[in-house]
Design goal:
Maleylpyruvate isomerase family mycothiol-dependent enzyme, Nonspecific Lipid-transfer Protein, Chain A, isomerase activity, two-stranded antiparallel ribbon, globular, 7 helices, about 45% helix, 2 domains
Length: about 250
């Protein structure tokens, strides 16, 4: 990467992206099916996002040392009525920030990748929000208008999660993957190993995927096809397709 990419403020971004999802929830038909989350409607998507925020907030507050059963989350379902649903969804995002503030950003808490400071959950919940906002926009026939800096940060955050998966054969031995944003100062190199490793940078790889950063983010999360017209795949395309098949969201 030749230029420093702007870094989003995860606190402000979580509130802003949550507000954008809440605006869709207020206007859209809640029975709309979500093709990128098979079997879900918009109602199930918004419940998943809001409950997930509250789930993280409870674990932060309790200093959890193991994952909490989401069914045990207090107020894990929105109330009846559109206004109550929207308010519940927005309060869910704020609950994460309030929990971090009360516990302290460095307080240890359980995460998918081992104990981490409580503030880790803000960025994780932000990109859960960005991914599912994209799901809703795609289902409603809208453009995914994620800010480039959020798409780039979401891609990096996703690679962090994937790199924390030991024992998964994500790339063939000795293979590498180069992601290159064409509209934003972002490049990523992923290398095979157990676990895989990644870093920002530019180098010749087994396969390179070029395209707008939001398209790269959506492709990495399998929200658009591996051969989407916005993407240019150079090198061994089977390695790219194999990576996606091995890294579901």
């Amino acid at each position: 990467m030749t230029d420093a990419a702007p870094t989003p403020d995860p606190r402000a971004a979580l509130v802003a992206e949550n507000a954008r999802l809440a605006a869709l929830v207020r206007e859209a038909e809640h029975t709309t099916e979500i093709p990128t989350c098979p079997g879900w409607t918009l109602t199930q998507l918004l419940r998943h996002v809001g409950r997930g925020h509250r789930w993280a907030a409870v674990m932060i507050t309790d200093g959890a040392t193991e994952g909490l059963d989401p069914r045990q989350v207090p107020e894990g379902k929105p109330p009846e009525g559109l206004d109550g649903t929207v308010a519940w969804l927005q309060a869910s995002a704020r609950a994460v920030l309030d929990a971090v503030d009360a516990a302290g950003p460095d307080a240890p808490v359980w995460t998918f990748t081992g104990p981490k400071p409580a503030a880790w959950w803000i960025r994780r919940r932000l990109h859960e929000e960005t991914a599912h906002l994209a799901d809703a926009q795609l289902a409603l026939g809208l453009d995914v208008d994620l800010a480039p800096e959020l798409a780039a940060d979401g891609l990096s955050e996703w690679l962090d999660l994937v790199a924390a998966r030991p024992g998964a054969e994500l790339l063939p031995d000795g293979a590498s993957l180069h992601l290159h944003a064409t509209d934003f100062p972002g490049e990523w190199i992923v290398r095979s190993g157990d676990p895989v490793t990644w870093e920002p940078g530019h180098e010749k790889a087994t396969v390179a995927v070029r395209g707008p950063v939001t398209a790269l983010f959506l492709a990495m999360l399998r929200r658009i096809p591996a051969d989407d017209a916005r993407l240019e795949v150079l090198g061994e395309a089977d390695v790219w397709r194999g990576w996606l098949a091995a890294t579901p969201f």
